[in-house]
Amino acid sequence: MLLLLISSFLTITVVCAVSQQPLTRPTAFDVQGHRGGRGNAVENTLPSFAWGLIDGATTLELDNGVTKDGVVVVWHDEEILAGKCQDSEPAFPNDSAFPYVGKYIANLTLAQVKMLDCGSKRQNNFPQQLTYPGTRISTLQEVFDFVECADPDHLMLWNIESKIDAANPGRTASVDTFVKNQHAVFAASPYQQTITYQSFDWRSLVEMKKLDPEITTSALVEYDTTVMPDNGVSPWLAGLNLHNFSGSSLGVRLAKMQHIISMPAFFLPAHTPLITRSQQKRWSIKRITWGCW
């Protein structure tokens, strides 16, 4: 079993019980727990990752934000949404930033983020979700430590996304801060070699490759980050101009762009067949489809 001891709102200590059985992995295919097991618990929280492990995930997918004081936390949204979290009390007396719900993570310190209760609200689109009142947003290091209890052989794979807002730079930490701080946590972890680094902001992929040429990276795409209303250059695509790439479809043009920046994986919605198998082979792209069931 996993024992989670919350010694304060700011520190989480994970203790591995001696009876914990090592993780086993099926070999036929990879099961990714999207934001942990968010059908069972609020996404990207320790209870959600626990459920991902229980349900047999072989890869844990998660998102990163960076706090005002530079700590890498595991959370999807740029700001603290009232639908997922609620305030408890200020991190310190007369805190002008309180209440924290509605604030951007980039404008809150870790101490402030740790005061939020993100386990008491069941999400409307997951009616069978369990609640875990008092659950705090975790740092990436805390998530690694938590999973290691169930995975002492470090077989778990990770799919970690940088949540940088390329269109609205003031809402998230800079690319430089994001990548350097994430890489520091990656490099200190026994999971470093099992991480796939993904982002809609291709600038972060390019910068991460400079720090770690061996890391697996994945270029995320969606229509809104590639095609601009004014037909201009997208801020998401590392300076590449979609209009400079020809092709029979949007997918072919994006694949050519991805090939330029040497991203070996290309994440696409399962219902969007943008490139063919022969095109995948030609550009050495691993096409990974996703969907929710």
UniProtKB/TrEMBL annotation:
Signal peptide: 1-17
Pfam families hit by this protein: GDPD
Matches recorded under InterPro entries: GP_PDE_dom, PLC-like_Pdiesterase_TIM-brl
GP-PDE domain boundaries: 29-293
GO molecular function: phosphoric diester hydrolase activity
GO biological process: lipid metabolic process
Superkingdom per UniProt: Eukaryota
Keyword set, alphabetical order: Signal
Alphabetical list of PANTHER family matching this protein: GLYCEROPHOSPHODIESTER PHOSPHODIESTERASE, GLYCEROPHOSPHORYL DIESTER PHOSPHODIESTERASE
Identification of the protein by name: PLC-like phosphodiesterase
Organism whose genome encodes this protein: Mycena alexandri
